[in-house]
Design brief:
seven-stranded mixed beta sheet; Dna Ligase, domain 1; alpha/beta; Rossmann fold; 23 helices
């Protein structure tokens, strides 16, 4: 982190937890001033306005220079041109931060672009939030520097939200889900401060228990990755909702890799790499951050569930299977102990329908729940609906909640209480659960999905810890000029072989020398057109396999020449690549690298061969990567069944396959400043102990 960024980081912490606030502007400031007053902000409030003697009861001074001292943060609600001047003056006087409400900067294009550049230049070391943003909220200290009246309540600690949409941020503050919010930041244009700045700040903040992000795009992926890694190391779970799935850059038509690594898959790869939970809806973002903030990260995905309805049990079982949540059966001794506590007509299973026999009996429920939460469970969940309006039913629901709270605390396991429908868990019940450290989840499906996401985070954390805490840092992405050079296949294979990739023995020859080259190698052989260089030799009829004689090679060479003339009129076959035929593969893989303008070199590994795009069985990894990550990616593919030995057939050489992928990754890293794309397809994985061989390779470099 450079010196300017460090200074802005220090100023951001000061601005988010200020001793004093300066409001600059007119009557529009009434709302945020009154919000701070109502929320109990204990710091000093100042107003700067040359016309009004006071705003919202706060006396005004005419100029920033008239303030008693440089403010920790200023809320600027003035026209865009004046915003630049105010920012310049604040920076010069030693203020820490400024929130720029005004719009009309780079987001509108045209004259707004140079105006935003001027704003950045004026800011200097100032922690500038925005422009074009609603503002910030610090619920812990009652700091509400926000354009509209938000929802939310004062807390001691909770979820910090960083949003790239002011309107969505406002809507989220109005949620009726009792998500304990500590901060809400609207990032606006991110002219100075990016999402990464807020992540770095919240990673160190003891008032933050989890971080939620609404992302439309990232300006600096390596910087974001570094900040997220810091949050992970500090035990701050991060949940991200990424909006938009359009491609970040145009697809290159040269290889299959580009079609397998779309931009949304790159965000998946980034989030997985960093241990970030990906949400797919605002509901998911809120419920998952709530679970993580209140109950924490479970040790695994094994859940024990308590219901008082057979229907609830069935719906739970169905959703758990879909989400990948394990509902383990009780151990025999646990089963017998539960059986002794329930009537003979009750069924002892997980989910456990304790039925109405224990309804309203606090001690019996606690005893039953505590018995059931044994070492086979990583967490416990009670499904309860406050559906009936009568006081007795309400009391029984609270009784069951208290039993779950006591049992989960006694067993030291995370607890959740959920309703089948979001609206059937009232606010008082939610607040009670949070106060006791149990997460109140709203909606059965949302609860199970959130638990599944939290469990995946736990597994990812464990995997990263085993690898030393995090993956190697991502590198800044440099631009490549417009020129392109595709390496001849033999040259591409030689370059990859130098980094450890296995390739077939082969020779280059002209038409006359091809039969002799084949005889020297030994039959069977494969013959391919080498010069001129083609991206798609198969489509051009320029690849022939399993040739058993010199005569067959001579005939194929003539056939390829004729096919080339039809495919590319005027082109002449000059050189051929003759290779020893590779046979007996257990599986065919594709290993490729795509250069993305934001993410840099991206590694793709998947099922290969001619059906690669039809099957789309692939995993995406950002570079640099590790052997453990590659092994996990290969193990998660459907084609991994073949590598493990499918239906009595021999297992593949998985270690050699991993070696091959790491060789491609090493080449990509060594040539990251000029590699445009790369395809090894197919990589033939031979039986265990026999290796893996790349029979085709395409490498496109910047000229």
């Amino acid at each position: 982190m450079d010196d300017l960024t460090l200074k802005r980081q220090r100023n951001l912490k000061r601005a988010l937890n200020p001793r004093h606030v300066a409001f600059v502007g007119g009557q529009v400031l009434t709302a945020p001033i009154q919000q701070c007053q109502r929320a109990g902000f204990a710091g000093k409030l100042w107003v700067v306005n040359p016309k009004y003697p006071e705003i919202a009861g706060v006396p005004a001074v005419k100029r920033l220079a008239d303030l008693p001292e440089p403010p920790d943060v200023a809320y600027l609600a003035v026209p865009r041109e004046m915003t630049v001047e105010m920012v310049r003056e604040l920076a010069a006087m030693g203020a820490a931060g400024a929130i720029c409400y005004a719009a009309g900067f780079a987001e509108v294009g045209g004259e707004g672009v140079p105006l935003q550049r001027a704003l950045v230049e004026a800011a200097g070391e100032l922690a500038l939030i925005g422009p074009n943003c609603y503002g910030i909220i610090n619920y812990v200290d009652g700091l509400h520097l926000f354009a509209s009246d938000p929802g939310g309540a004062k807390v001691e600690r909770g979820v910090a939200l960083v949003m790239q949409s002011g309107n969505i941020a406002l809507n989220v503050t109005m949620n009726q889900r009792s998500v304990p919010l500590s901060y809400v930041i609207t990032a606006g244009n991110q002219a100075v401060l990016e999402i990464a700045d807020y992540l770095e700040c919240f990673a160190d903040d003891p008032k933050v228990t989890a971080i939620g992000l609404y992302i439309e795009g990232l300006a600096d992926v390596p910087r974001f990755a570094a900040a997220a890694t810091r949050a992970l190391a500090n035990g701050k779970p991060v949940v991200a909702l990424k909006a938009g799935t359009s491609e970040l850059g145009g697809k290159l038509a040269m290889s299959h890799t580009s079609s397998l690594a779309g931009s949304d898959k790159l965000y998946d790869a980034l989030f997985d790499r960093l241990g970030i939970v990906r949400a797919h809806s605002l509901d998911g973002l809120l419920e998952t951050t709530k679970l993580l903030a209140v109950a924490g990260v479970p040790a695994g995905n094994r859940l024990v569930v308590f219901t008082c309805s057979g229907g609830d049990s069935l719906m739970t079982a169905d959703r758990a299977q879909q989400a990948g949540v394990a509902l383990p059966p009780f151990k025999p001794e646990t089963h017998d102990a539960i059986r002794a506590q329930l009537p003979v007509f009750a069924s002892v299973s997980n989910p456990l329908d304790y039925n109405t026999s224990l309804w309203g009996d606090r001690e019996a429920l606690e005893r039953c729940f505590t018995t059931a939460i044994d070492e086979n469970a990583d967490a416990a969940m009670l499904v309860i609906d406050f559906a009936a309006p009568d006081p007795e039913s309400h009391r029984a629901c609270v009784c069951a909640m208290d039993a779950l709270i006591a049992a989960s605390r006694a067993r030291g396991k995370p607890g959740m209480v959920t309703s089948t429908l979001p609206e059937l868990l009232p606010e008082a019940a939610r607040d009670h659960a949070i106060a006791e450290g149990v997460a109140p989840m709203q909606g059965l499906e949302s609860a199970i999905d959130a638990f599944a996401a939290a469990a995946r985070l736990g597994r990812r954390r464990a995997a990263l810890a085993a690898a030393g805490g995090s993956l190697p840092p991502l590198h800044a992405v440099g631009a490549i000029g417009d020129g392109r050079r595709m390496l001849p296949e033999a040259e591409a294979k030689a370059a990859l072989a130098a980094h450890g990739l296995g390739v077939p023995e082969g020779r280059l020859a002209d038409a006359a020398g091809a039969p002799n080259a084949a005889a020297a190698l030994g039959f069977p052989v494969a013959v391919k057109l080498a010069v001129p260089v083609l991206a798609h030799k198969t489509e051009a009829g320029a690849v022939k396999l399993r040739l058993e004689s010199e005569a067959a090679v001579a005939a194929v060479v003539a056939e390829i020449a004729a096919s080339l003339a039809r495919y590319k009129p005027g082109a002449k076959a000059e050189r051929f690549l003759v290779e020893r035929q590779v046979a007996g593969a257990v599986a065919e893989l594709i290993v490729g690298v795509k250069r993305d303008p934001q993410f840099g070199p991206v590694l793709v590994v998947g099922a290969g061969g001619i059906l690669v795009e039809m099957i789309e069985d692939a995993a995406t990894l950002l570079l640099p990567t590790t052997r453990a990550e590659v092994a996990a990616a290969l193990g998660g593919l459907r084609v991994a069944k073949l590598l493990r030995g499918y239906r009595g057939k021999p297992a593949g050489d998985s270690e050699a396959a991993i070696d091959a992928v790491m060789a491609v990754a090493a080449y990509a890293e060594a040539n990251r400043d000029r590699l445009v794309e790369l395809d090894v397809n197919p990589l033939m994985v031979l039986p265990e102990g026999e290796g893996a061989v790349a029979v085709d390779a395409l490498v496109l470099l910047g000229a």
